[in-house]
Amino acid sequence: MRIVVTGGAGYIGAHVVLALRRDGHDVAVIDDLSTGTPDRLTDDTPLFVCSVLDTERVAENLRAHGCELVVHVAAKKAVEQSVAEPLMYYRENVIGMHSVLSAMAQAGVGKILFSSSAAVYGAPTGDLVDEQAVTAPASPYGWTKLMCEQMIRDVAAATALDWVALRYFNVAGAADPALADRGENNLIPRVFRAICSGVPPQIFGDEYPTRDGTCIRDYIHVADVADAHAAAVRGMSSGAPSAIYNIGTGSGTSVLEVMHTARRITGRDFDWDVRPPRAGDSPAVVADAAKIRAGLGWQSRHDLDDIVGSAWQSWSSRSEIPVAR
Ligand SMILES: NC(=O)c1ccc[n+]([C@@H]2O[C@H](COP(=O)([O-])OP(=O)(O)OC[C@H]3O[C@@H](n4cnc5c(N)ncnc54)[C@H](O)[C@@H]3O)[C@@H](O)[C@H]2O)c1
């Protein structure tokens, strides 16, 4: 299939491009390079450098590639930044989605696969979160993702649009050091940064009602996330119904468990600094991933050791980072 991945020069997008190419698809990328870098793409991957906000150019690029399906990954993703700069998030993510759907309509593209997020659930209650759980985003970022899902459903109700939305949980790791996440918003890169700088990593709260008092999250390897996109495209090609799917392992890991794994894998004997809990952090957010297993035959294959190990390999291979011994 001829596919355009928006945000394909970013961390997750580049892994998605790789997985789709492995499945034999003809993939081009639209990216404004605001956080992405072209070195994540092979030389033979067509890259259209433009913002998804530029509807005319997006439509032109979709036509130029003969696009049949858009994988819309491009977005801003930092929860705390979305609280400080909500208008920027609504512009990039929500108006961005409006622009992509408009361009698809102009270019006659009838299929979209969308990068959503577990942030749509806010602070869920219960052990596992399934796709029927109440959506109550706790940040402007989460709201932008929920609004995009709603926009897709509304357009699909009025047209013949086929769609899938994948709600990723905590994405981490790397399939290749060159494709790694270079941001430092998430726990695992924050831990590496702290231990390489010789300061104890901070953990926020150790009195949550969880097995060791720290927050529990569902860490999913980015290569598994990418494979879920390949499975979704196979499903869309063979007439699977439009749907929302959680992308997680179904198993939770506490912050302390991440610390112990990072100690073992890095070989660094570091301690951590317990800070007060952060507002809005829920005790546990773990996916029920049964729906995608049943519907598309996908399930995660990598465990926490693979995630932390691959992230550490990428981190320590970055020459600009001084790795303390
Ligand atoms: N990383 C996670 O844990 C996580 C979890 C849930 C959902 N997501 C979602 O996954 C997607 C990808 O996240 P990521 O971690 O790869 O982030 P990233 O910042 O590495 O990638 C985003 C890509 O989109 C591009 N981009 C941003 N705004 C654009 C615009 N207006 N026009 C064109 N390109 C634009 C960036 O240059 C970058 O290449 C986002 O939609 C994010 O909300 C990420």
TrEMBL record:
Pathway per the UniProt entry: Carbohydrate metabolism; galactose metabolism
Record-listed E.C. numbers: 5.1.3.2
UniProt key word Isomerase: yes
Catalytic activity: UDP-alpha-D-glucose = UDP-alpha-D-galactose
GO molecular function, one term: UDP-glucose 4-epimerase activity
Source superkingdom: Bacteria
Biological processes per GO annotation: galactose catabolic process via UDP-galactose, Leloir pathway
Positions of the NAD-dependent epimerase/dehydratase domain: 3-248
This protein's record includes keyword Isomerase: yes
Family matches, as Pfam families: Epimerase
Keywords carried by this UniProt record: Carbohydrate metabolism, Isomerase, NAD
Cofactor(s) the protein requires to work: NAD(+)
Annotated NCBIfam families: galE
Family (UniProt): Belongs to the NAD(P)-dependent epimerase/dehydratase family.
PANTHER family: UDP-ARABINOSE 4-EPIMERASE 1, UDP-GLUCOSE 4-EPIMERASE
Listed name of the protein: UDP-glucose 4-epimerase
Origin organism lineage: Bacteria, Bacillati, Actinomycetota, Actinomycetes, Mycobacteriales
